[in-house]
Hints:
Radius of gyration: 17 Å
Mean pLDDT: 80
Helix content: 25-40%
Largest sheet: 6 strands, mixed
Amino acid sequence: MKKFGDTFLLPVPCNGKLTFLESDPIASLSIALWWDEHGRAAYPETRRLLILCDGGGSNSATQYLFKEDLQRLANRLGLELRVAHYPPYCSKHNPIEHRVFPHITRACQGVIFHTVDIAQQFIERAKTTTGLRVTVGLLDKVYATGRKYAADFEENMKILFDDHLPKWNYRAVPQPE
């Protein structure tokens, strides 16, 4: 994680790549889990997170359900969540693609995942000599498919879109409940 003033860059795999079924709330739940278990204690002065997301899937820049989940998360954490989406077909530029996934692939070479425990065990073996260490948190809840965003969310959303590339860059600012 890199610090820029009071903002931390959090390149998370928020496209569900490490899950067995892509479901809408996975991205926001993964961020919340990381913040609650690691981020808050390690970076107590943080007021904003920068989240880098791929351009497709359930957390793409065009998904209002993702934005609604993100706004709820910003409200719950009390943090400004800035999202920068990579344009479609540009995920190869996402740092997590180069800094984490190759090491996970190497740690899992030749392994057949018969169980979730085996997958977790081998993924957690991924590490580098420079200190990268992978932790795996299982979200073992059953998630509903076919979720819809609130009928009035699109008209009343509090998401702030940037002047530069507003389709792919925006912020969820905590709102009073």
